[in-house]
From TrEMBL:
Protein known as: Glycoside hydrolase
Region forming the signal peptide: 1-28
Gene Ontology MF term list: polygalacturonase activity
Active-site residue list: H248
Cited PROSITE patterns: POLYGALACTURONASE (PS00502)
InterPro entries documented for this protein: Glyco_hydro_28 (IPR000743), PbH1 (IPR006626), Pectin_lyas_fold (IPR012334), Pectin_lyase_fold/virulence (IPR011050)
Pfam families: Glyco_hydro_28
Domain of life: Eukaryota
SMART domains: PbH1 (SM00710)
High-level lineage: Eukaryota, Viridiplantae, Streptophyta, Embryophyta, Tracheophyta
Keywords: Cell wall, Cell wall biogenesis/degradation, Glycosidase, Hydrolase, Secreted, Signal
SUPFAM superfamilies reported for this sequence: Pectin lyase-like
């Protein structure tokens, strides 16, 4: 008996759909090339040098026309300094790390390399999971003893790269900076953990400079320097839901070290907690001539717990009184808003605006600020700063 025409048409259409779906899923299954570093000679025993296996995995992933995954299984993988360079034949390479990457414990091995793990001129790279163990404690001890030591290596650096994701990564005991974003566009850091001693020198958690469209979300940073440091040429930076401590706070600067310098603008810091830090929300610039600036900055929803300098603008930064005594900062600070900032100060002066004599801070806004010192209202100090106070502001505004 012949099948009715309509029923036959429906079955043909269904057959085409099923075939399309099967072909699609089959294509998807072969679309990603995966490279396991162990298959390429890496050993997760914590002592065998696996550097070449990682570089080999990168070379294969970079040559692949399909999206690629470099898989690092559980284990401790000993690695010397590595540079992963583009341009690649695809724009979707993921390092999926289930294990721990371990730097040499002898800081002389990579201490002068600049970076331990470096990516440059790449597009569409994701680092997912894993622990990056910089083994920096011996170098910190050397520096804290006053001896002559290497400057140390940054654990993870991206430079001149676009469309980067760093997700669920833990940076442990970096020799110097933990994560650096330099000259990049469209970078997302999410669920990052930074762990280092409060007395580890020059170990900024996340440093951003000369970059546009960087987002830092849901991260916990404890280190011996700035939790997040924001350098010249940073535009459109969004920081949200970050816990900082120990550390030196979230700092814009130091700015104005160079005479001709790119400015910082459009920075938002939202929902941040600072515990026992040296600073909370800080802007600092060298006390010397510069074309730099910091403008359109919003600090909102911050909680301070026993913070030495909860709100501070310091335009007379001059470490060791070298290269700047007697000069004034050329950096122009303007349009900075502090909104819903609450908590406790570890010092009597909780709000300090120490601005440039030549370029006073302008359009500073305090809105709903309540900072106390030993259960009493704290003090505010202003020098060459102008702006407004709205709503309840404690300590009483000096603007």
């Amino acid at each position: 008996m012949e099948m009715p025409m309509m029923r036959r048409s429906i079955l043909v259409v269904l057959g085409v759909l099923v075939t399309t779906l099967l072909l699609g899923s089959s294509a998807a299954a072969v679309a990603v090339s995966t490279y396991n570093v162990v298959s390429l000679g890496a050993k997760g025993d914590g002592k065998t040098d696996s550097t070449e296996a990682f570089l080999s995995a990168w070379a294969k992933a970079c040559e692949s026309v399909n999206p690629a995954v470099i898989y690092v299984p559980a284990g401790r993988f000993f690695l010397k300094n590595m540079v992963f360079s583009g341009q690649c034949k695809n724009n979707a390479i993921t390092f999926r790390i289930a294990g721990t990457l371990v730097a040499p414990s002898d800081y002389q091995v990579i201490g002068n390399a600049g970076n331990w793990i470096s990516f440059q001129y790449v597009n569409g790279v994701t680092i997912s999971g894993g622990i990056l163990d910089g083994q920096g404690t011996a170098l910190w001890d050397c520096k804290n003893s006053g001896k002559s030591c290497p400057s140390g290596a940054t654990t993870l650096a991206f430079s001149n790269s676009n469309n980067i994701k760093i997700v669920g990564v833990t940076s442990l005991n970096s020799q110097m900076f933990h994560i650096v974003i330099n000259g990049c566009n469209n970078v997302k850091l999410q669920g990052v953990k930074v762990i280092a001693s409060g007395n580890s020198p020059n170990t900024d958690g996340i440093h951003v400079q000369l970059s546009t469209g960087v987002t830092i979300l849901n991260s916990k940073i404890g280190t011996g320097d700035d939790c997040v440091s924001i350098g010249p040429g940073t535009n459109n930076l969004w920081i949200e839901n970050v816990a900082c401590g120990p550390g030196h706070g979230i700092s814009i600067g130091s700015l104005g070290k160079d005479l001709n310098e790119a400015g910082v603008q459009n920075v938002t810091v939202k929902t941040a907690t600072f515990r026992g830090t040296q600073n909370g929300l800080r802007i600092k610039s060298w006390g010397r001539p510069s074309s730099g600036f910091a403008r359109n900055i919003l600090f909102q929803h911050a909680v301070m717990v026993n913070v030495q300098n909860p709100i501070v603008i310091d335009q007379n930064y001059c470490p060791n009184n070298k290269g700047c005594p007697g000069q004034v900062s050329g950096v122009k600070v303007s349009d900075v808003t502090y909104k819903d900032i609450h908590g406790t100060s570890a010092t009597e002066v909780a709000v300090k605006f120490d601005c440039s004599l030549q370029n006073p801070c302008s359009r500073i806004s305090l809105q709903d600020v309540k900072l106390t010192y030993k259960n009493e209202p704290a003090l505010a100090s202003c020098s060459h700063a102008a702006g407004t106070a709205l709503g309840m502001v404690q300590p009483s505004s000096c603007l």
